[in-house]
Structure formats: C-alpha cells, structure tokens
Amino acid sequence: MRTVIDSKKPAWITLAVALVFNTLLLSLQTNKHFDTSFVRVWLLASLGPFEKVVDAGVQGVENIWTGYIALIHVRRDNEKLLAENGQLRMQLSEKSEEALELGRLRHLMDLRATPIGKTVVARVIGKDPSQGGQNITIDKGTKSGIRKDVTIITSDGVVGRVISSSEYFSVVQLIIDSQSAVGFIVRSSRRLGILKGTGGSELEMAFIDDDNDIKQGDELITSGQDQIYPKGIPLGTVLSVGPRQGNFKVVRIRPNVNFGRLEEVLCMTDHLPEVPVGQAP
Amino acid sequence: VKDRITTYGVIGKLAISLVAVVVIQGILAYRIRVFGYFDLPLILSIYYGFTLGRPVPSVIIGTSIGLLQDSLSGVPMGTNGFSKTLIGYLAATAGSKFDVDLPVTRAIAIFLFTIGDGFIISILGLMTGSSINLGYNVLWNWLVAGVFNALLGTLMFGYRDRVSHAAS
Predict the structure, then answer these.
(1) What is the pLDDT of residues B2-49, one digit of tens each?
(2) Residue in chain A lying closest to B80 (CA)
(3) Euclidean distance between CA atoms A38 and A22, whole angstroms
(4) Do A131 and B25 touch (CB under 8 A)?
(5) Which residue of chain A is at minimal alpha-carbon distance from B137?
(6) Chain A with chain B: Cβ pairs closer than 8 A
(7) What is d(CA A171, CA A113) in angstroms, rounded to the nearest whole number?
C-alpha cells in the first residue's frame, strides 16, 4: 500500500484510473446493463450501524434536554390537554357514528376501504450527506420487508419511496427531491397529472398548459398511475397558480408532510392493489 | 514489522475519519437544517489534498469519501466519487504549488472547490438523465454553501494547525 501511495509514477495515471472507475460505475447504472446496486447496499450496510449509533447518542442528549424543559411547563400543559381531551372525546363519539354509517354505505355500494395494507414503523436516522440532496436514511431494511419502491408515509401524507435497502437500513427519496415524480389527482376536480420535486421545500406540477380546473387551495392525492405510490394518499395543497414559463404554467404545491420534522415514518410493505379512478377517499 | 504496523495504523485512522465525516454530515444535516449547506466530505478531501500535497493518496481519499457519500444519497453511485476525486487531485496539486497555509487562500480555494463540486455533480446528473434544476435557486445554494464551507473549513484547518504545532 505504501509503495502505491509513495509511487513516483505520474499522478495522472491514478487520477485517470479513479475517474474511469467512477465513470464506469455511472455508465453501468445509466445503461442498466449490469446491476451495481450491491455496491450501494454493501456501503449502506456498513455505514448504517455507525449512523444509528451516532443518532442514538444525539437522540439521548436531546431527550434529556427536552425532558428537562418539558417538566417546567408540564402542569400548564396537563391542564390544557385535559380540556382538549374532553372536547376530543365528544368529537370521537360523533365521528364513530359517522364511521359506522360510512361502513354501512360502503358495504351497500360494494366498495373496499382505503387500501393501506401492512405497514412497518421506521425511525429516521440521517439525511442525505450530499449538498442539496433530499433523501433520508431509515433504520429498517429488507429484514423488515422493505424493498425498493416501498411507499413511505406519515399520518399527514406521502413522504417518498425507498430507493435502496440493505438488511437493516434503507435510503428514502423524499417527494421534494429534484429526481422525484408522483402521479396526482386534484381531489375536487379529479384532474390527473404529475408532481415533481424542486429540491427545495415545495413541489411543482409538471406540464400544466392551462389552469381552468386548478385553483389555489385545491387538495391533491396520489393517483396510483405511477405504479409506485398507491392511490388516495394526501400529497399537498396548491399554493399558487401561474405565471406561464415557456409552454407551461408554474403551479406550486405545499406538501402536507413537514419534511423538516420527520422522526418516525410508516413503510407500506404490502399495500393492496390500487382502486379504480373515482373511488379514492 | 514496525513500519507495517504504522502504515496499517495510518490507513485505519484515515478510514475511520472518512466514515465518521460522512455519518456526521448525515446526522447533522438531519438534526440541524442549516447544516445541509455544509459539505464535510468535500472539506476533508480538500484538507487532505492541501496537507498531504501528494496527488495519489488525495485521489484515493477523494474517490473513497465520494463513494461513501453516494451510498447514502439518491444520486447514482460514482457522482460524488468522480467529483471528489477531481477535487482531491486539484487540491493536492494546488497544495504542492501554492502557499495554502494562509487562511485567505484556503477560504478562497474551498469556496471555488464548492462551486466546482456543485457544477460537476449537476453536469453528471444531466449526463445520467437525472432531472437537475440549474436555475437561480441552485446557483444561490452553491454560493451560500461556498461561503459556509469556506468559513467552516478555514476554522477547522486553523484548529488542526494549532493542534499539530502543539504536538510538535
């Protein structure tokens, strides 16, 4: 090793070899002639445990801190929560009646409930170490049934999809990543389209040449037509429509999920097949 | 035998520092939002390039840290590997030809390398069919990242110099 490092041979040979190696790796992935995912999986499996240990340490310090701060306000918070609890109990009894009625109606109309299927809870342990990248690492992998293209959600909506998995860890591409695209339906008008990530905190509609049936405040859900995300999961709300840039309108979307505060996520390991258009919740 | 043990020790320390930097970057970017602008693996590549002043080990370090970074990113494997390899080589060449002990020189070099890194990654993204935005926001992000990295890198290099002087 020392002889290689201290070699007097021209350095550009090493540079050329390293650049060709990286170019070959890129080229193989682009052409899909040869599966190079094992390199990523192997590196992810090696780095994951370190990331989990460091994250656990940071989390421990954070818990001590927040636990102490929370104790100062605990009495006031408790009174507030008790009051809220009473209100929520009343609302719950009303909602359970509505749910029973909805169930009866679904049964009558022979419709299935929203297909969520089997889920696994995972913890976010890290973020993309590249500049501007919008991916996260979670502490569950193939051992928990998580594989490529598994949909990741929270109670607020879609988070993203798994792009690579090792045995115990997975990398998730967030829907706000500039490489991401999701099929959507406007909940009110049933218009279909594609949402693209901007690499920032928002999403954009792709290829919108008119805005007649898209208004500010419209809610969007997944369409299921991309064959990755199951249908009917909340995506976000239309923030603004227009102006036209080139051939298409710029429609900005605020995602439902707060990506800055992701801690636990649900992995849809076994979602049921999509329901036909028009049956989404 | 003693030489071999020393060599393995150096390689071991180097490997640990590479893994640690990528992991710390991932954790801090997740916990502290503003840390997304920093690029510790890039700063480390430049640091080794400057201090070693030898292109061969700098190229190996650049490739290794870039590939580690790629494994936790969504970009195709080899993207950061390619960029950090080139930056490691250029930093080592600059380190052997210019006086990179001055904080101003270091800050300017880190700033320029950050812009270069962003540019190379975007070009590779376009070549591999990824949808990369090359708009005003991206340019702004590069500039902000350049300033942040230059500040952090200069501080870290300065601290490292002090520790080295104290040890010697």
Answers:
(1) 677 777 888 888 888 888 888 888 888 887 878 888 899 999 999 989
(2) A130
(3) 15
(4) no
(5) A200
(6) 187
(7) 30
Q: Distance from B69 to chain A by nearest Cα, in Å?
A: 6
Whether A6 has a pLDDT exceeding 70, the answer reads: no
Q: Which of A169, A187, A98, A177 is nearest to A130 (CA)?
A: A177
Task: Please state the pTM of the whole predicted model.
Answer: 0.73
pLDDT confidence of residue A1: 44
The phi-psi region of residue B53 (left if phi > 0; otherwise alpha if psi is between -120 and 50; otherwise beta) is left
pLDDT reported for residue A2: 45
Read off the tokens for A86. 């009473």
Residues 129-148 of A with CB under 8 A from B: 129-137
Q: B133, A55: Cβ pair inside 8 Å? A: no
pLDDT (mean) for B117-126: 88
Query: Which 3 state secondary structure label does DSSP give B100?
Result: coil
pLDDT higher at B104 or B30: B104
User: What residues pair up with A158 in beta bridges, in sequence order?
Assistant: A153
Residue A110 pLDDT level (bands cut at 50, 70, 90): low
Could you say which residues from 96 to 135 on chain B have a Cβ atom under 8 Å away from some Cβ of chain A?
A: 114, 117-118, 121, 124, 127-133
Give percent above pLDDT 90 in chain A.
17
* Residue A278, phi-psi category: left (phi > 0), alpha (psi -120 to 50), beta (remainder): left
Q: In the structure encoding, which two tokens stand for residue A243, read together?
A: 């102006």
Chain B neighbors of A178, CB-CB under 8 A: 130-133
